[in-house]
Amino acid sequence: xxxxxxxxxxxxxxxxxxxxxxxxxxxxxxxxxxxxxxxxxxxxxxxxxxxxxxxxxxxxxxxxxxxxxxxxxxxxxxxxxxxxxxxxxxxxxxxxxxxxxxxxxxxxxxxxxxxxxxxxxxxxxxxxxxxxxxxxxxxxxxxxxxxxxxxxxxxxxxxxxxxxxxxxxxxxxxxxxxxxxxxxxxxxxxxxxxxxxxxxxxxxxxxxxxxxxxxxxxxxxxxxxxxxxxxxxxxxxxxxxxxxxxxxxxxxxxxxxxxxxxxxxxxxxxxxxxxxxxxxxxxxxxxxxxxxxxxxxxxxxxxxxxxxxxxxxxxxxxxxxxxxxxxxxxxxxxxxxxxxxxxxxxxxxxxxxxxxxxxxxxxxxxxxxxxxxxxxxxxxxxxxxxxxxxxxxxxxxxxxxxxxxxxxxxxxxxxxxxxxxxxxxxxxxxxxxxxxxxxxxxxxxxxxxxxxxxxxxxxxx
Length: 461
Hints:
Blueprint: H1 3-30, E1 49-55, H2 74-81, E2 83-86, E3 89-90, H3 96-103, H4 109-112, H5 128-133, E4 138-143, E5 159-162, H6 169-186, E6 193-198, H7 205-211, H8 243-246, H9 257-287, E7 294-300, H10 319-322, E8 326-329, E9 338-340, E10 345-346, H11 350-358, H12 372-375, E11 386-390, E12 394-398, E13 402-407, E14 414-417, H13 435-450
C-alpha cells in the first residue's frame, strides 16, 4: 500500500469512528438521557441557570436535525429537537468582534464602538455577565472572548475558567469543553449561574482556505469523490454589487468545481468537531442534575460563505454570512422541536430574552426584544425588520419580503425579493417595478440609524 493510500485509509477509518461515536451520543440525547448520567436530583432554584453556547463562523443551515444531510451533529440536534430553532436568525454584524459586542449587550456595533476586530466594548455599556452578576448570578466564561483579546482572563463581569489553548479550534475547543464540564460537575454555589461556553470551530476553515488557496491538480483524497456536496444553487449570481463585495479575492483563485465542493465538505467536518465538544458540555449539565433548571441557548457570531456567491469566510451582508443558528431549549419551559420560520430575529434579542427568564430588567437602551413568547408558543408582535452593519459603511435592512444592502459612498445598492429569490441572485435595485420598495427600505434605514446612540469617534477607531 502506498503512503498516500495509507493516509486515505486512516482518514476514512477516523471519520467512520467519529460518526459512530456521534451517533451513539445522539441516540442517547434523543432519548432524553446522556450516556453515563448519574441521575442526580435536580437542584431547584427560583431563577433558571443559563448555558450560553457560542460557536464561531457557523452558517445557519449546518445542523442535521434542521435538514442538512451532509453532516451529523447529535449535540446540536438534541437542542433543536428539545427546543426552538429560529430559521430567520441574523447576526448584527458578520465579523467576530463586532458581532460578539452586539449579542453580549443588545446594542449595535456602531454603538458599542466595536466596528472592527480587536476592539473593547464601550465602557458605559454593560455586557450580560456584568448585568446578571450584579443581580445575583454567578457569571462564568470559558473560551474565545475577542472583545478585544481573543483569549484572556480579563473579561469584565465574568470569572474566567479557561481562555483556550491557541487560535485554532481543533486544539483549544476540547480545553474549553472540559473546563465547562469541570465547572458543572464540581460547582457548589447555590446562586444561579450564567455559563458561557465559547468555541472557536468551525472558524478553522479560515486556515483551511489559506492552506488550500492553490489547489492541486486533482482531489487529494479520491475516496471522498462521492461524498462531496454539490455547488450551492446561488454559486452564480448578479454581478451588480457594491465595490467592497465585488472585490472578492476568491474570484481570482481559479478553483475548479471539485475544489469548491471539497472546501464545503471540509467545512462540514469543522462543524462536526465543535458539535462533539457541545455534546460533552450537555452531558455534564445532565449529570449535574441541572438540565431541567437551565435555559440552554446556542448561536454563532456570523456565518460562512460556503461557495454561495462564490464567497468564502465572512464580513459581507449576504445571507450566508449573516444568518446564524439561534436555538433555545429548557424542558417544561420552552416548546420542543419547533422550527420558527415566521419571525425575523437578531443577535440583539439574546440579552433581553435572558433577562426575561432571569426575572430582571433589560439593560437601558437595549435594542432587542425578548423572544420568550415565541419560545413558549404565545402570540406576540414581531420585528418589522432586522438590521445589520459591516465595517464602517455597510448597512442592511431585512423585512419579511425584501432585503436592502448599501455601502456609504458606493453608488450600487442591492434589493432582493427574499420570498422569490432567497439565494439573492437578482438585484432589483434600479428596476422601476421595485422603486417603491427600494425607497421604503431606504427610509427604514434612515429612521433606524437616527435612533442609534452611536459611539464617540474615538471609541470606534
